[in-house]
Amino acid sequence: MNSDKSVALFDVVNPADGRPAGQAIDHGASAVAETVAELRRSQVEWERIGVRARAKWLLRYQDWLIDNAARLTDTVQAETGKTRFDAEIEVPAAIDLLKYWASHAERFLADEHPTPHSPIGITKRLLATYRPHPVVGIITPWNLPLLNPCFDMFAALMAGSAVLVKPSEVTPLSAVELARGWTEIEAPPVFSVLTGHGETGRAVVDTVDFVQFTGSTRTGRAIAVACGERLIPYSLELGGKDPAIVLADANIERAAAGIVYGALFNSGQACISVERVYVEAPVYDRFVTTLVDRVRALRQGADGRDFAFDIGAMATGTQLDIVRGHIEDARAKGARILLGGNATGAGLFFEPTVLVDVDHSMRCLTEETFGPIIPVIKVRDAAEAIRLANDSDYGLSATVWTGDRVRGERIARLLEVGAVNINDAYANLMNFALPMGGWKSSGIGARWGGAGGIRKYCRRQAITAPRGPLLAREPLWYPASRFRSRLVTTVMRAVDARGWRRVSLPLRRGR
Ligand code: NAD
C-alpha cells in the first residue's frame, strides 16, 4: 500500500554477530495517510461480516502461523540475536492468544439489552452495541518482534477494527512477515504493516482512531499528549522495574530458579522481567549462593536452531550502554558484583550479572535496566520488602516467593502493581483471562483479561425504541401542559423519593 515515489530503505542487523538481517522501508507520513485511508474503506465490510466470519479468517491465519513457525522464528532470531529457546515461544504464544479471541469474541461483543434503571423505562426497548474504532494503530518495541504486534492485533481485528502495525525500526522484519501471512491467506485488506522510525510512529498517531502503544514510558507520554490533542483514545503498555520478594518460608531452590528465568529471559529485555530482588534476612545468604550457582551455570551465545545457549544478545548498542551505565554507577556507589558485570566483547552480549550491597540511591534499583542483571537487597522483614517494592515510579508487575499462598495473596494486595505472580515469574503473561496492564508510570489501560480486552477497541452505542403501539406524541412533547408535566414528574418522584410525604408532594400541593 505504499505509493512513495522514492523508497528509502534502512538496514536491519543481527546484534549477535553484526551481520545484515535484512532491509525495511522507511515509510513517510504520506504512506501512512494513504494506508489508513485504504484500511478505513475496507473496515466497513470487515465490521459488517460479523464476528463469526472474522473468526474464520483469524483461524486460517492461525494455520499459516503454525505452518510457518520455524521460518518466523528464524526471522525473530536474525533481527534480535536471541537464543532459539527464547525465540521459539513467540509463535505458540501468538496462536494461543489468537485462539482465545477467536473463541470468546462473540460472547464478549454480543448486544446487550439492559434492564431499565427505573419502571418508567419499561416504555422503551434498550439496546447497547459494541461498534469498533475503525482503524487501530499498534506501535511496538523490539524485544518480542513477532509477539508484540500479536499481543494486540487479534483482539482489534476480532472487534471489527482494521489494524495498522508500526513495528520498531530495530526489528521490523518479523512484523513484515506477519503482513505477508495475512496477504498469503487472501484475507480482506484490513491489516497492514508500515515500517519506519519514530516519525512513522508519529504519523500513525496523527491518523488512526485508536492507538495501542507498547514501548518506553518516555514515548508513551508523548503519544498520550498527541492523542489528547486529537481527542482519540489510547492504551499504553510501558516500562517496568519489577520487584521480587523472597520470604523466609520460600522454597529457595524454586525461588532462585524462577528469579533467574524471570530476570534473564530474553537477556532481561522484557517489560515484566525481574529487575530487583528483596530477600528476608534469614534466607538471604542461602538465596544468594543458590542464585549465583544457577547464574554461573548459564551458557551465553548465538545458537541458530540448536538450543545450545540460555542467554542471547542485547538487541541494540544503546541498550548495552544502559546496562553498562547501571553497573558502573552501582560499582562507583559501593555495590559488589558477585558474577558477570561486563560486556563480552564480541557481538552485543552482556554477561548475566548478580549484584549485592545495592540500595535505592543506585540507578540499577530505580531506573528500568532492561538487561541481564540481578541486584539483590537483604531486608529485615516482609514489611520492609513491600515498602521498598512500592518505592518506584513504575508499577507493572511483581513476584512473591513464599511457602504460604494466603500470605502471598495478602502481600500481593499491598503491592502497587498491575500483576503479581506468586511462586512464579511471567505466569500472568500467559493467562489471558487476566488483564495485563501497568499502574503508575507503567501504563494506562490493559490488554486481554476477558471482555474488557476486546471492548476497549469498541465504542458503545446506545439504541432505544418505544415498546408497544406508537402514541401520537410522548407526554413531554409540546405543547406544554400542566397535567402531562405533573403526570410525568409525579411518577418520577414516586419512583425515586423516600417516604409518602415526598412521593406525593407535587400533587398534594396542587401547583
Ligand atoms: P520506544 O518507546 O523507544 O519505541 C517503541 C516504538 O515507538 C517504536 O516502534 C518507535 O519507532 C516508536 N516511536 C518512537 N517515538 C515515537 C513517537 N513520538 N510517536 C509514535 N511512535 C514513536 O521503546 P523501545 O526501546 O523500542 O522498547 C523498550 C521499551 O518497551 C521498554 O521500556 C519496555 O519496558 C517497554 N515494553 C513494555 C511492554 C509492556 O507490555 N508493558 C512490553 C514490551 C516492552
The unreliable regions are none
Number of helices: 18
Q: Structural class from helices and strands?
A: alpha/beta
Small molecules held by this entry: nicotinamide-adenine-dinucleotide
Main beta-sheet annotation: 7 strands, mixed
User: CATH superfamily assignment of the largest domain?
Assistant: Aldehyde Dehydrogenase, Chain A, domain 1
Oligomeric state, counting identical vs distinct chains = single chain
CATH architecture annotation of the largest domain: 3-Layer(aba) Sandwich
- Helix residue percentage: 40-55%
CATH topology category name of the largest domain: Aldehyde Dehydrogenase, Chain A, domain 1
Rg on CA atoms, Å: 27 Å
Cα separation of the termini: 69 Å
Mean pLDDT: 96
Shape: globular
CATH secondary-structure class of the largest domain: Alpha Beta
- Beta strand count: 19
The neighbouring-strand order within the major sheet is: 11-12-13-10-9-15-16
* Number of individual domains: 3
What percent strand?
Answer: 15-25%
